[in-house]
Amino acid sequence: MTKKLACLFILSLALFFLSFTVGRYPISPGTVAAILWSKFAGMPNGFNADMETVLFSVRLPRILAAALVGSALSVSGAAYQGLFKNPMVSPDILGVSAGASFGAALGMLLSRGMVATQFLAFTFGMVAVGISYAIGTLLAKRGEPVLVMVLGGIIIGTLFTSFVSIIKYLADPYNTLPAIVFWLMGSLANVSLADLRVASLPICAGMSLILALRWNLNVMSFGDEEARALGVRAGALRLAIIVCATLMTAAAVSISGVIGLVGLVVPHMARLLAGPNYTRLLPVSLLLGATFLLAVDDLARVVFAVEIPLGIVTSLIGAPFFLYLLLNTRKGWL
Amino acid sequence: MLEIRNADCGYGARTVLRNVSFDVPPGELLCLLGPNGVGKTTLFKTILGLLPLKGGSILLQGENVSSWSRRRFAAKVGYVPQAHTPPFPFQVKDVVAMGRTAHFGVFSSPSDRDMEIAEEALCTLGIAHLKESVYTEISGGERQLVLIARALAQRVEILIMDEPTSNLDFGNQVKVLEHVRKVVEKDRLGVILTTHHPNHALMYASRAVILGRGGTVSTGTPEAVITEGYLKEAYEVEASFHTLEGRHGRRFSVCIPTT
Questions:
Q1: Shortest CA distance to B101 belongs to which of A267, A148, A226, A298?
Q2: ipTM
Q3: Residue of chain B minimizing CA distance to A225
C-alpha cells in the first residue's frame, strides 16, 4: 500500500517535470532543468527569452491547471459516489456542468470578456446544483432525499443543456458559436496564472473540507438511516459535501470547460489502488486525478499537429479504460 | 435504562401507534412482535430518532432525549439493521470501526485504539478471522454478525435490532440469537429485537411487546402475552402451545400452528 502510494507520488512528480518538455516548441529535459533551477535560484541564465516565456507563461499555468482541475474533478467524483451510494455517479450528477456551460455560453453570447464568462460559468454551476438540492430536500416526502435529488439533477441538467442549445441557436455562427462549441469540448490551452489564482481558492477550500470530513463518507455510503444511527448528522453532512464538491467542480469547469469522464473513471482507478476506505481513497484520488489529467493534456498537446480538445481525449482514453476496469474487477467494487 | 412514555408514532400525517409505554432495563431482551404493517418498524425507528416522535417522550437514564445530539444519542443507543450490501467492498474491520464514529471528532478517523475496540467486538462474536475479509463477499449470516459487532464497538447501552434472523438459515438464526443472549447476559445490554417468529420471543426474550391489528399494544412476559388468542387475532393462525425442556433443564414453551 505505502509502496504503491510512493510509486504514484514519484510518477506524478516525474510527469509534472516532463510536461514542461512536451509541446510544439521542443525543449530538452536538461534545458528545462537548467531554466527552472536558474529561476528558482534567482540567477540569470544563458538561454533565450522565448524559452523562458514558453515555460513560465504558456506551459506552467497549463500544467498547474491540469493538476488542479484533474484533482478537483476526481475528489468531487469520489465524494459523490459515497454520498449517493452509487459508483456510477460523476460530479455532474446534480447539473453543475450543464449549469456552468450555460453560464459560459451566456458570457460568450454577451461578449463580456473572459473574466465575466468564467464568473457566469461558476455562478450558474452553483445555481443548477442549488435547484437540484432544493428539489431533493423539499420534495422528498420522508426518508432519504437522495433519489429525488439525483432525479432533480437529471432534469435540471437537461434543462440547462437546452438553454445552451438556445444560446447556440441565437449565437453569431462565425465567431460566437465556434467559441461556445470549443469551450464545451474542454481545453486548458488558454488558462492564465491569474485564472488559476482565482479558481484555486474555491477548489482548495472545498477540497480541504472534503478531505477533513472523509471518514464520514464511509458511513454515508451505508445510507442515511444507518449513518444517523451511528451518530452522523446526515443532512448537514450531505449539504457540506455538496457545497464543497460544487465549489470545486464549478471552479474547475469555469477555467477548463467541460472535461468528461475524469470524475467517474479516476475514483475507480483509485479504488483499485487504495481500496474503498475514504481515508485512503480521497488522497489517492487527488494525486491520481492530477496525474491523469496531466498525462491526458500532454497527449492532447503532442499526438497530432493540431491540438485536440481535452474533453475528447479524456473520453477517448477514459471510455476503453473504464471498460477494461469493468472486465477485470475481482472484488465487487461496482 | 430506556423508557418509552406514552409514545405516539407515525410518519407524515399518519399516526400508527398511540400511547405506547415500556421500559428496557439493562440485561433485558425485549422482543417486539407483530404482523406485517402494524407499525413495528415505525415504532423502532421512532425510538431511534429516525422518525419524529408524535407525542409522549423517550427517556434515557431519566433524561428526555429529544434535545440530545445525534452523537450523544449514538453513544448510548445502537442500531443493528438487516444485513444488506453497501455499494463498495469495505473490509470487515472498517465496517466495524464505523461503530466508533460517534466517539471521535467529525474531522477525525478511527485511531489505533478505535481499531482495537473494533477487533475486540469481532472477537466477542467469534468472527475475528473475518477482519481482513471483504464485507460484500461474506455470507449473510456473517454480515449480520459483523453489524452486531459494529454496534458492540459503538459501546452502547441499548441495542435495537431489526429482524436480525430474517434471511438467515436455521443454523445462523440460532447462532445470532445465542450471541444476542450472551451480550444481554454478560454485558448487561438492553436489547429490543423485532422478529416474525413467536417462538424466538418465547425461547429467548425476557419480555415481549406485542402489536395487534388496529394498533393494540400489550407488554408482559412472553408466555403471558403470546397466547392462542393473540396469534389468532394477529396472524389468523390457530396454534397450540407445548412445553419443552431445553438445555440446562430450562423449560420453555413453543407454539405450533394447527390449522
A1: A226
A2: 0.92
A3: B50
Contact A277 B91 (CB under 8 A): yes
List of long-range contacts for B123-126, beta carbons under 8 Å, 24+ apart: B124/B149, B124/B152, B124/B183, B125/B149, B125/B152, B125/B179, B126/B179
Phi and psi torsions of A153, nearest 5°: -60, -40
Quote the distance between the C-alpha of residue A250 and its chain's center.
Answer: 9
Q: What's the pLDDT tens digit per position in B203-233?
A: 999 999 999 888 889 999 999 999 999 999 9
A147 CB near a chain B CB, below 8 Å?
Answer: no
Of A226, A239, A330, A333, which to mutate for an interface test with B (greatest number of B Cβ within 10 Å)? A226
Ordered by where they begin, the domains of chain A are 2-13+63-327 (1.10.3470.10)
B34: phi then psi, degrees, rounded to nearest 5: 170, 155
Nearest CB neighbour to B50, from listed A218, A228, A279: A228
Q: What is the DSSP letter of B157?
A: S
Entry pTM: 0.92
CA distance A119 to A100: 9
Assess contact for B66 and B15: CB atoms under 8 A. no
In chain A, residues 126-145 whose CB comes closer than 8 Å to chain B:
141-142
Question: For A145-168, b where at least 16 C-beta lie within 10 A, e where not — what string?
Answer: bbebbbebbbebbeebbebbeebb
Tens-place pLDDT, residues B14-68? 899 999 999 999 999 999 999 988 889 999 999 999 999 999 999 999 999 999 9
Closest CB to B107 among A212, A218, A219: A212
H or E stretch including A266?
helix A262-274
Minimum CA–CA partner of B74 in chain A: A231
Query: Looking at residue B257, what DSSP letter applies?
Result: E
CB contact under 8 A, B87 and A87: yes
Grid cell, residue B44, equals 423502532
Chain B residues inside the 8 Å CB shell of A231: 70-71, 73-75, 101-102
Instruction: Report yes or no: B21 and B4 within 8 Å, Cβ to Cβ.
Output: yes
